[in-house]
Amino acid sequence: MFTKPHCPVIAIEEHYWDEELEKTYTGSEAGRPGEQYKRLHDFAGMRIKEMDEAGIDVQVLSHGAPSTQKLPADTAAAMTRRINDRLHQSISAHKQRLAAFAALPTAVPDAAADELERTTKELGFKGAMLHGLANGKFLDGKQFWPIYARAEQLDVPIYLHPAHPQPDVQRIYYDDYVKDFPMVARPAWGYTVETATLAIRLVLSGVFERHPKLKIILGHLGETLPFLIWRIDQALKRPGQKSMSFRDIFSNNFYITTSGNFSNPALLCCVMEMSVDHILFAVDWPFVLNPPAMEWIGTVPLSDADKAKILSGNAKQLLRM
C-alpha cells in the first residue's frame, strides 16, 4: 500500500478517444479491443474509480495520438470543434475531477488559433495538445505560428505529444527490429526522437524571439532534452552558429511532466537543469496505469514542499486551476 500525499494530485497527460475521430485512423493508429481501449472511451466509470484508488484528484484529459493532426483542411476545423464540444460535455458532470486540453485543427492554422481561444474562453480548457507532425509537416513552420501567437496572448500552454513516426523514418530507423520489438518505434525510442526533434526545431525557428512568453509542455520528463541541455547549448554556441541560447529558452519557456517516466535519477537531472518549478505530475493513463506513478512518488528524494509543487502546485499556476 502507498499513502496519499498531503496535497492535491493533478495528473495532466491523461488520454481519451473520440469515436468520430477514431474512425479516421487506419493501420497501426487504429484502436484494438481490450482493457486499454475500454479505458480510452471511459469518463465516469473505470477512470474515476482508478483515480480514487490511486489517490489522484484531477485528470487533465487530452485526445490520444495522432489526435487531429492528420485531418484534411476541408474537414479539420468543423470536426475538431465537434470533438472539443463532446469532450466538454463529457467532463461537465465531473468538473471537480476532470479538465481538458483542446485538440486543434492544425491543417488550418488560423482556425486552430481561433479554436484555442474558443475552447479556452468558452469551455474552460487549459490549453491545447498537439501530436507529432501535422500532415507530414513539423509544427515549427511559420504557417503554424498563429497558434503560438494566440497561446501567448491567452497565456495558455501548448503540450507537444508524440505520434507514430513518419513512414520513411519508421522504415529506415526501426523496421529492422519492429517486428520483434514493436515498442522501439513508439515509447521506447521513436516517440522521443520525433518530439525532441520538434522541440529543438521550435527553439531554432525563432518563434520564442517573436513570442517570448509562449509556454510549451513536453511529457516523459522532457523527451531526454534536460539530460542534453548542456551539450546542445554548447554545440550551438560554437563558431559559425547564429547567436542564441538554447539553455535560456528551454529552461524558461518549457515545462516537463513525469508522464510514463518514473525514474528518480532522471527526475533529479530535470530538477537540476529545469528547476522544480517547471516539472508537473502526469501518468499517461491509460497507456500507463496509475499505481506505478503514485508508488514512485513515495520514493522521490525531494522535500515535501517540492513534491507538492510537482503534484499540483505547478499545475495550479501554469493551468490556472
CATH superfamily: Metal-dependent hydrolases
Structural class: alpha/beta
- Using only C-alpha atoms, the radius of gyration works out to 19 Å
Largest sheet: 5 strands, parallel
Low-pLDDT parts are none
Structure write-up:
This protein is an alpha/beta fold. 45% of the residues lie in helices and 10% in strands. It has a single domain (10-318), classed as TIM Barrel. The protein has 14 helices and eight strands. Helix 12 links the parallel strand 7 (254-257) and strand 8. Helix 4 runs parallel beside helix 5 and helix 5 (109-121) packs parallel to helix 6. The longest helix has 20 residues, at 73-92. The radius of gyration is 19 Å and the shape is globular.
Could you name the key traits of this structure?
alpha/beta, TIM Barrel, 8 strands, single chain, 321 residues, 3-stranded parallel β-sheet
